[in-house]
Amino acid sequence: MGLVATLAQPRALLAGAEGGFRFSFNGFDGKPLPLSRFKGRAVLVVNTASECGYTGQYGGLEKLWQEFGPRGLTIVGVPSNDFGGQEPLKGEEIKNFCSLHYGVTFPLADRTPVIGTAAHPFYKWAHETAGQGAVPRWNFHKILLAPDGNVAAMFPSPVRPDAAELRQAIIAALPGS
After folding, report:
1. What are the strands, taking DSSP E only, across 9-81?
2. CA nearest to 35, candidates 70, 68, 76, 64
3. Which residues share a beta bridge with 100?
4. Considering 52, 75, 126, 173, which one is annotated as catalytic?
5. Which of 116, 120, 142, 175 could cross-link 155 (Cys pair, CB 3.0–4.6 Å)?
6. Does the annotation mark 98 as catalytic?
């Protein structure tokens, strides 16, 4: 499978027909960030960090958001401090950093665990549903949800936002594709 793990036939979803849209993160502003808000759209969930070698991917993610957002893509950044303590920021500090340095306008969660027993329920569900490829091994791991909430594809950290395989998966997952 190389660097990309794409699911042709996702495993049966755990209880509930909403798939990944059943989950909600805490937004950077302290308000809920329910994924159900994006039901019917393709959603790229990316665990992020502000002090990582991949942090520059924020700029590429913003470009994807600007290009594909009007066509039905939402990007949700999920900052995590799980890998090397590379996300020291919380809340509004995260939003300010992303806006100032990368012009980020896509939705951002507050700092959230993405691995281990403390992992957010979305990441536990993704692992149970899509297998080991859904478990982040570092910052900027990407999980693409189809408009029905199923996991459509997963991409490890080195796959940049401008990578052909990521763009192709997004185009295939857009509503009406």
Report:
1. 24-26, 32-34, 42-48, 73-79
2. 76
3. none
4. 52
5. 142
6. no
